[in-house]
Amino acid sequence: MINFDFKNPTRVIFGKGTISQLGDTVKEFGGTKVLLHYGGGSIKSNGVYDVAKKSLDDAGLRVTELGGVRPNPRLTLIHEGIEICRSGGINFIIAVGGGSVIDSAKAIGVGVPYDGEVWDFYTGKALPAITLPVATVLTIPAAGSEVSFSSVVTNDDGAFKRPLDINVIYPVFSILDPETTYSLPPYQTACGISDMLTHVIERYFTRVSDVELTDRLCEATMKTIISNAPVVLADPKNYAARSEIMWSGSIAHNNILDTGRIGDWASHMIEHELSAINDVAHGAGLAIIVPAWMRYVYKHDVERFAQFAARVLNIEQNFHNPEITALRGIDALKAFFKSIGMPVSLSEIDIKEESFKSIAEKVRKIDEDKGIVGNFVQLTEADIVEILKLAR
Amino acid sequence: MINFDFKNPTRVIFGKGTISQLGDTVKEFGGTKVLLHYGGGSIKSNGVYDVAKKSLDDAGLRVTELGGVRPNPRLTLIHEGIEICRSGGINFIIAVGGGSVIDSAKAIGVGVPYDGEVWDFYTGKALPAITLPVATVLTIPAAGSEVSFSSVVTNDDGAFKRPLDINVIYPVFSILDPETTYSLPPYQTACGISDMLTHVIERYFTRVSDVELTDRLCEATMKTIISNAPVVLADPKNYAARSEIMWSGSIAHNNILDTGRIGDWASHMIEHELSAINDVAHGAGLAIIVPAWMRYVYKHDVERFAQFAARVLNIEQNFHNPEITALRGIDALKAFFKSIGMPVSLSEIDIKEESFKSIAEKVRKIDEDKGIVGNFVQLTEADIVEILKLAR
Fold first, then answer.
1. What is the distance between the alpha carbons of residues A223 and A229, in angstroms, rounded to a whole number?
2. CB within 10 Å: which end of chain B, N or C, has fewer?
3. What's the pLDDT band for B73 if we cut at 50, 70, 90?
4. Which CATH number fits domain B185-390: 1.20.1090.10, 3.90.226.10, 1.10.10.10, 3.40.50.2300?
5. What are the residues of chain B with a beta carbon less than 8 Å away from any beta carbon of chain A?
């Protein structure tokens, strides 16, 4: 176990009917004039908008709306949000939606009190010291942004996608009502499941030794996601299973599972470039990359992969040949992704071998500053091409 | 899963050598004049005091000391601490020690800005709205108070022991250096292990259904505690195992494992009365009561007890007769307590059958306001006597 410094200040209000607490809770945190930030029309058709709006109105809050956040939230809309907040004297931001809406709200939050260009925070040119408080009403369990210190934003001017990770952007509170997820289409539900499961997998595969507690907490979360996934797909209004998935998505990314260890994150970096090419959903891209990455790197720690197979996927340990256990685990994970309707090969999303080299170059470039892709195994461009070949 | 509202704002700084960060971190939180609160001489003999004091001095902080906290922290010393803080203009409290020192510091923290008598907060006569910030340097992994919203204090005037549970008393930060636990004697180490394991057991046995994620997170924590306990007892300077135990003690009580469920807590209430009679250590008393409680209540949910046996203690499930699995799990837990040197019967601590009735009466009385003892099963006085008989 390595030394760590952990704090997660986000308050989580979880359960049926909790969105009606929105207005009063904003007031507890000192909000009076709020920006209500959201995406497309889904929160209007599923009723979430009405409940949230009524709660804010009942609490006597002045509400300004800014909709239109798209997947991979854009800097132009963030600029617009910052301007609205400044000119309207807004002192609180509420994100209603999934990870993209929340990430956009976080960017507006740090942008408002900053004299410079908010993009500076995403290139590392500056660090945000303060933010307008941001709260969330989560409607898509996937990214974990409702309890995380992360925001990923795309600069339309050249389409650079960059992350900001810093304690100041933890939401002050997040409301999670599993009933809001009843109307998520199966494909989007499955993409969210793939995303949250991969958040745990990225943390699980570490070279740090003596991490028993966090290993087991990771396994607990992965098992819960895997066992509830088929239930929510077969029975979208199953409250118990939707609850397990929703809370698992937050536990997967609130950084408790990160304490004392260093995750890998190469699969996330590779996937970002797939999404950039053909707009495949993040979770779907991960379902393609992760098993290929596993197959490429498992020999660096066969025991850990065997442990994953045995404890998470109930593969019986082959004591004479743990490598067989490890490989069966990877196959089982791929079969799981397939079973929930995810693509598991690049051919399914029309990415051909000709583009592998340029994808690998771009992945290496994202992380120019640090110069590394992956921590479990540090990957070269050639390694990334091999992983993409395994994902054909 | 039931609705919940969860927030844990305590920052945890974990690992080797982290105590030297104490002074600078206090300054980050605005502390200038600090009360350094501790117990007996152990922090002086094991070197923790010197490192902490040097860090505070190096940071230019003005330090006033108050030692002498005993197990079951007393109101008289808390009064003294409040007076010292007020007269010295102290604006930050640091607890160096275990649960008793931390609980005492929390009481001083809420007492300083309160016009009335601090005991009011423990009787429910008043609720604290603010506190002086409290930080901790943990040296005894057991109570979990370093990351909890709880403080338990004893009023010397009549020896009433009362808890205060409220968000405002979460420590602002806690430093956990596993090396500080190397010098803990085996019995005290084992008592801490019993205490933290029981914190999870109390949460695990719930009547709330559909709590898969938190069940599995509880199991992960219990397995880690059980597997590392013999290691730290056999090899007290094993950093890896001491780390697992120390972080498990915090995870056991930071209330993540409580989300969406209602724990039982009858064993804790019964144990408090044993400690009151003959000063048995809390963890040791729990090792006696918990298996007896289990044997008395398991028929209310044989499946849950079988799950506990199978998943936590690796008992093979008897599919034809799950009750056998459940009972084997209880036996295995009792054997575990015995193996780490805990007493497992009341006769070992000289509590005789004559006193069972009066113990049961007192237990019922503690909780007069709510009128219940236990949530998994609500116990009557007669039930408590039967449990004590099973613990003979």
1. 10
2. C
3. very high
4. 1.20.1090.10
5. 1-18, 173, 209-210, 212-213, 216-217, 219-221, 223-224, 227-228, 239-240, 243-244, 247-248, 251, 256, 259-260
